[in-house]
């Protein structure tokens, strides 16, 4: 009996909180058929927003993947002063509200900020793509590090040392031993980073200036259309974001088959 | 090639793992580094391998000074306690690793790997992954992998430590035979004196980062240099300042000259060997090893009074 209570309780909670709202977005998007929805997402403004969102991810994800693996190696494999502090700072983007991140970047690169002078030299950070990329990188930084660190701890250094005694140079050790051992953790981290980069709203919203057709990512576009009562466009774009999310979740499952075993 | 560690000191923070250690390993020998945990035996092996950098001292392999060379350029083959198998590679790829990394021709690699898998009796398992092997098989694979690059010295760090007792015994005998076949200078680190004595021709006894004694198994057992070696290479009874091996205690049913009275506390039958635990009238406990035959003649029972005297005893001069 309690088994059923548990099962329906959990399912009901999920349905009410997650499935119904997201389902409604789909329903409203296709309420008047596929045609209007398609028109809405293929408008130049929507296409540009999607392209910009993908560009953010295309820069932030590889950067945070490479840097994340290096940082994880440094945290696990070496002892340096301030290691504990670095370890804590990596988690900062998870704890800090994205709006605060945006504001911080705004203060740093804005007029009177430490790096505000860059704008005078023709390097535009705020209200432009570079600032938005920085914001996206900031908020999506921890995922690869956090996935890779425990796996690196678990595999230890014996395999690497064995490879070393067999004649492998440091980079060969990394490529042939370390990387294959952490590949699933990296893949999982990449999926999470991608999801975060594509969905980011708060930080990007502050630094972008939300200039239509110029600095508007898909989440910003959804927000703008919704506020202008262009609900059809907002719902249709939401569906695109939701589909990307679904693909991400499927990706997660594919990379974490272990969960099924337990 | 022979190996020499000269005045090697290694510290981990404030802890001194090796304190000015010098050891010479003759070419072609099988030498055991024997000691309790924390004695520095593994650290010494890792210093020789180049996996640890000593604070001072030198490491020579053959005539060459290896002290400042990275592990990959020392020509050593290393086997680790927990196998260090490359989990994402098949047995074949594990063994071939050192050769592939040296970009040897495919045919040569194939020949060598075949030969080695045969040597370690894993021919049929080339396509398996390490997770599909038993502990003993994994360690034999690790040994083949280390031998593949034709190392000038073979370093084994507690290679049988993670295996169960029966497999351990098998592999010891097998290692001994293998060494007779390939003749590569080999160092085996172990905390098990029986293992060291069974496998090695020369034993270096280490304690607290220092060398206590170097010698053949027989020398260590018969002429231990000090208390530590005496009690580490075999069971021993200590009575005041004298040390007596359990098999050097004579047990009599009647009092005789030089005998002390003792009571039988426990009799343990281990097949050929019978262990008797005694307590002397002054409260001193004694362990005695008898052969089954001797034990049968004495018909010892718990609570029985017997008379004991040492057949042979050792006294170390103070200091």
What does this protein structure show overall?
The complex is a heterodimer of chains A (262) and B (319). Chain A is mainly alpha-helical. Chain A is built from 14 helices and no strands. In chain A, helix 1 packs across helix 13, helix 7 (129-139) runs antiparallel to helix 11 and helix 9 runs antiparallel to helix 10. The two termini of chain A are 23 Å apart. By secondary structure, chain B is α+β, with helices and mostly antiparallel strands. In chain B, 29% of the residues lie in helices and 33% in strands. In chain B, strands 6-7-8-3-9-10 form a six-stranded mixed β-sheet, sandwiched between helices. In chain B, strand 15 (273-280) and strand 16 form a beta hairpin. In chain B, helix 2 crosses helix 3 (106-119).
- Largest interface here, residues on each chain? A-B, 16 and 27 residues
Q: Flag low-confidence runs of chain A.
A: none
Q: For the terminal residues of chain A, how far apart are their CA atoms?
A: 23 Å
Strand content of chain A: under 5%
- The helix-and-strand class of chain A reads mainly alpha
Q: Could you give the order of the helices and strands of chain A? A: HHHHHHHHHHHHHH
Q: Helix content range of the residues of chain A, please?
A: over 70%
**Quick one: overall form of chain A?**
globular
Query: Residue share in helices of chain B?
Result: 25-40%
Structural class of chain B: alpha+beta
Global geometry of chain B: elongated
Q: Radius of gyration of chain B over alpha carbons?
A: 24 Å
The count of strands of chain B amounts to 18
**Which assembly state applies to the chains in this document?**
heterodimer
């Amino acid at each position: 009996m309690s088994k059923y209570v548990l099962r329906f309780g959990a399912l009901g909670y999920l349905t009410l909180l997650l499935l119904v709202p997201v389902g409604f977005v789909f329903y409203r998007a296709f309420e008047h058929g596929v045609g209007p929805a398609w028109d809405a997402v293929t408008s130049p403004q929507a296409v540009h927003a999607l392209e910009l969102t993908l560009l953010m991810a295309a820069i932030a994800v590889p950067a945070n993947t490479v840097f994340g693996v290096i940082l994880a190696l440094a945290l696990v494999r070496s002892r340096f002063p301030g290691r504990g502090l670095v370890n804590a700072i990596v988690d900062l983007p998870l704890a800090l509200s994205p709006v605060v991140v945006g504001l911080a970047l705004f203060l740093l690169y804005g007029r009177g900020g430490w790096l505000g002078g860059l704008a005078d030299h023709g390097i535009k950070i705020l209200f432009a793509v570079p600032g938005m990329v920085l914001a996206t990188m900031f908020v999506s930084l921890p995922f690869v590090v956090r996935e890779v660190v425990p796996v690196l701890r678990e595999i230890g250094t014996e395999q690497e040392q064995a490879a070393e005694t067999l004649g492998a140079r440091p980079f060969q050790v990394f490529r042939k031993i370390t990387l294959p051992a952490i590949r699933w953790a990296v893949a999982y981290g990449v999926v999470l980073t991608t999801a975060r980069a594509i969905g980011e709203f708060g930080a990007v919203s502050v630094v972008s200036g939300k200039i239509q057709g110029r600095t508007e990512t898909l989440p910003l576009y959804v927000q703008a259309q919704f506020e202008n009562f262009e609900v059809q466009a907002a719902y249709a774009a939401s569906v695109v974001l939701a589909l990307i999310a679904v693909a991400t979740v499927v990706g997660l499952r594919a990379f974490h088959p272990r969960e099924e075993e337990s | 090639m022979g190996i020499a560690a000269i005045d090697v000191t290694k510290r981990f923070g404030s802890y001194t793992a090796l304190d000015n250690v010098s050891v010479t390993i003759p070419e072609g020998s099988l030498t055991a580094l024997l000691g309790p945990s924390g004695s520095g035996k593994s650290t010494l092996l890792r210093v020789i391998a180049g996996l640890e950098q000593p604070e001072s001292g030198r490491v020579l392999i053959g005539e060459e000074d290896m002290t400042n060379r990275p592990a990959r350029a020392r020509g050593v083959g290393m086997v680790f306690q927990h196998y260090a198998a490359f989990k994402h590679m098949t047995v074949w790829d594990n063994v071939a690793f050192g050769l592939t990394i040296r970009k040897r021709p495919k045919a040569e690699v194939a020949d060598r790997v075949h030969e080695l898998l045969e040597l370690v009796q894993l021919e049929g398992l080339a396509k398996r992954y390490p997770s599909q092997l038993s502990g003993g098989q994994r360690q034999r694979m690790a040994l083949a992998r280390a031998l593949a690059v034709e190392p000038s010295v073979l370093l084994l760090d507690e290679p049988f430590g993670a295996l169960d007792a029966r497999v351990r015994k098998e592999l010891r005998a097998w290692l001994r035979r293998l060494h007779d076949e390939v003749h590569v200078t080999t160092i085996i680190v172990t905390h098990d004196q029986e293992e060291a004595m069974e496998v090695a021709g020369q034993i270096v006894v280490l304690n607290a980062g220092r060398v206590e004694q170097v010698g053949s198994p027989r020398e260590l057992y018969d002429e231990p240099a000090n208390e530590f070696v005496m009690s580490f290479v075999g069971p021993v009874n200590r009575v005041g300042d004298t040390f007596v091996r359990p098999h050097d205690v004579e047990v009599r049913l009647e009092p005789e000259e030089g005998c002390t009275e003792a009571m039988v506390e426990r009799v343990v039958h281990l097949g050929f060997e019978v262990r008797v635990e005694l307590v002397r009238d002054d409260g001193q406990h004694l362990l005695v090893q008898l052969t089954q035959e001797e034990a049968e003649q004495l018909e010892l029972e718990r609570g029985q009074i017997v008379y004991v005297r040492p057949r042979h005893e050792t006294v170390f001069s103070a200091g």
